Structures are given as C-alpha cells and as structure tokens.
Amino acid sequence: MSIQEIRLFGDPVLLTPASPVVDFDKELRKLVADLTDTMLEAPGAGLAAPQIGVPLRVFTWHVDDVLGHLINPTLTLGEEIQDGEEGCLSFPELRYDAKRAMNAVARGFNMFGEPVVIEGTEFLARALQHETDHLDGILFIDRLSPEDRKLAMREIRESEWFNAQSESGNTPTIKTSPHSVFGRNT
C-alpha cells in the first residue's frame, strides 16, 4: 500500500468518465488500499480512483470514523435536498456550498466482488454523491450556483497550487462539465 499523488483540477482524467471494474483481483485490492491510505493521509472524507489517475469506478470514504469503499456504484437519491459546504482533494482549500440529496442509497460491490448496499444521510449521502460524480467526470464546482462557480473559478486561478501547475508547464485546461449537473444527480 502506498500514498499516491492526488490529481488536481485541470488534469483531464478528472473530466473523463471512469470504466467499470471487471476483475476483482489482487490489483483491485491494492488500488482500494492505495486509495484508502492516500485519503487518510490527505486527509479527506472520500477519494475516487480517477483522482489518483486510475480511470476505474472505485472510491473510498471516511465519514463519522467509518472507512468504506465501493466499486461500480449506482445511486438512488431521496427527494429532500440539503445545501452545505463541500470541498475536494483535487481543489486544495476550496470550499463552497453545494446542493445535494439529503439521502442516498449506493449499490455496488466490495473489493471481493460481493454486492454491497450503503444507505447514507447528510454528510455520508453528500460523500457518496461527490465520489460517484468523480466516476462520471463531474466535479463539485459543476454543482455550484453560477455565481458561486464564477467566484470559485477566480479563487482557483489565483491559487498557489493552480499557478504552480502553470509555471511547471502543466497549464490546466479549464472546461465546463458537459453533464447536466444542477440540482440532483440523475
């Protein structure tokens, strides 16, 4: 198990939908361990495989002192909406309010290929939606109101981490998600 580099906004892997996992093998278990170690080291409440450059439908979470992972997730969302602060390890120190469903049921598999159902409310529901979005190439800034997204983009362009990428020749490409993302996940 090892700590991996977290990909930052501008890396194309973050905007690319991830592929389903088809092999539940030793390599997958190592990926889950690397995701968990990297998330805990960061520290964060969740981390998706694309955030470490692996385009597979896998994520981990750490909410209310509970560690978990999910592979090939699908979500069913409740009708009630919550509005709360959200951040992302791919956007260091950036935090904005984003609307999410108050309740989420995630279905998928564990690293051994066994079916798993995770029911979450409030913060866990937010984490499940946020990480599943990563697997679909959707970023949390895509969930912001147009006004907040404009403020966030300004903050990103002025950030030290964004400018360090530019100075090293890795100028991030700023794109808007092609997905319809306002309101609920669909």
TrEMBL record:
Biological process according to GO: translation
Amino-acid positions noted as binding Fe cation in the UniProt annotation, renumbered to this chain: 88, 130, 134
Protein origin, superkingdom: Bacteria
Disordered: annotated span: 163-186
UniProt-listed CDD domains: Pep_deformylase (cd00487)
Catalysed reactions, semicolon-separated: N-terminal N-formyl-L-methionyl-[peptide] + H2O = N-terminal L-methionyl-[peptide] + formate
InterPro entries from the UniProt entry: Peptide_deformylase, Peptide_deformylase_sf
Residues at the active site: 131
The enzyme's E.C. designation: 3.5.1.88
Keywords: Hydrolase, Iron, Metal-binding, Protein biosynthesis
Cofactor note: Binds 1 Fe(2+) ion.
Enzyme class: hydrolase
Cofactor dependence: Fe(2+)
Alphabetical list of NCBIfam families matching this protein: pept_deformyl, PRK00150.1-3
Record function comment: Removes the formyl group from the N-terminal Met of newly synthesized proteins. Requires at least a dipeptide for an efficient rate of reaction. N-terminal L-methionine is a prerequisite for activity but the enzyme has broad specificity at other positions.
Family, similarity comment: Belongs to the polypeptide deformylase family.
Protein name: Peptide deformylase
Biological source species: Candidatus Planktophila vernalis
Protein encoded by which gene: def
